[in-house]
Amino acid sequence: MDLTNLSAKTKSGIGDPIQLSDFHPVKCETLTRVGCPNDGGYVVPLDAIEAAHALVSFGLAHNWTFERDFKRHNRDAIIHCYDHTVSLRTAFQFSIGQLLRFVFLFRTRSLRRIFTWIDYELFFHSDGTHFKQRIGPDNQDNSATIDDVFSRLPAGCPVFVKMDIEGSEYLVLDDLLRHSGNITAMAIEFHDVDTHPGLFSSVVEKIKRDFYIVHIHGNNMGGIAPFNFPNAPEITFLHRRFFDSAPSPSSSKYPTPGLDCPNNPRLPEFAFEF
What share of residues in the chain are helix, strand, coil (percent, to 5)? Predict the structure, then answer.
């Protein structure tokens, strides 16, 4: 498959599993990029960051540039991160792997990651709290529920949500939306769109009851579904209370120059044409 000029276009055929028009972002003037230039960074509304008293981040891997950058924009924000796969030990192992990539493959991007284990210790000692738990619908297998997450924050705390949990988002989003009144915005990477397009579409429609889509980007490492839509779209939602009236559709290009970057710089971007 030629990915050079890959694009997703609005469909009108009966039975199409994804209608791109349902994902057309609305106009938002405060968008900014938070986090690293590539995988791990998201385009989000700055006013939602400033209005939040906490960031709840589901899914870290060994990249907390979003969380660090969020703290730079909002110094008083509580930072709570959830990932059961990450620890100081795994961060050290990751750092060694990056050092080897630099030495033997001369990957210059790996050079700045060889101190990840030190950065983990510094960031989660001073600015963030790392809960070594997965997020799930119950407390099995060392899981924290969405109610657990909000119970660890001050009552009524306005929260910004970042979520990248490899498909488990579908298990917890109904629970998360019960707290939508306390959420300013959400940046979510969805997964498995090729195998669960109906579930993906229905979940997004539920979110849109209280939120507007203000940005969309395709993770170019996730591949493309047979119906010409990214398998791993990154979607930013802003709560409707930030708008005085119904906003107009955005006329921006997606990916958006100056904001979007490819998750993998060696692969072409997905282009949405609304």
Answer: 30, 25, 45
Q: What is the pLDDT of residues 57-81, one digit of tens each?
A: 999 988 999 999 999 999 999 999 9
Residue 76 burial (10 A CB sphere; 0-12, 13-18, 19+):
exposed
Residue 30 DSSP label = T
If you write DSSP's letter for every residue of 92-147 in order, what string do you get? Answer: HHHHHHHHHHHHHH--HHHHTTTTHHHHHHHHHHHT-EEE--EE-SSSTTSEE-HH
Q: How far is residue 222's CA from residue 212's CA, in Å, rounded to a whole number?
A: 24
Euclidean distance between the first and final Cα of the chain, in Å?
A: 23
3-class SS of residue 71: helix
- Helices 169-177, 197-207: crossing angle, 10 deg rounding: 20
pTM over 0.85: yes
Who wins on pLDDT, 62 or 150?
150
Between CA 35 and CA 2 the distance in angstroms is 30
Six-digit token string for 28: 């938002």
56, 267 contact by CB (below 8 A): no
Report the phi/psi class of residue 219: left, alpha or beta, with left for phi > 0 and alpha for psi in -120 to 50: beta
Domain architecture of the chain: domains with CATH: 7-86+132-273 (3.40.50)
CA atoms within a 13 Å half-sphere pointing along the CA-CB vector of 142: 8
Percent of the chain with pLDDT over 90: 77
- pLDDT, tens digit (0-9, with 9 covering 90-100), for 13-55: 345 688 999 999 999 999 999 999 888 899 999 999 999 999 9
Take residue 36 and report the two structure tokens written for it.
């690293």
Q: How far apart are CA 161 and CA 181, in angstroms?
A: 13
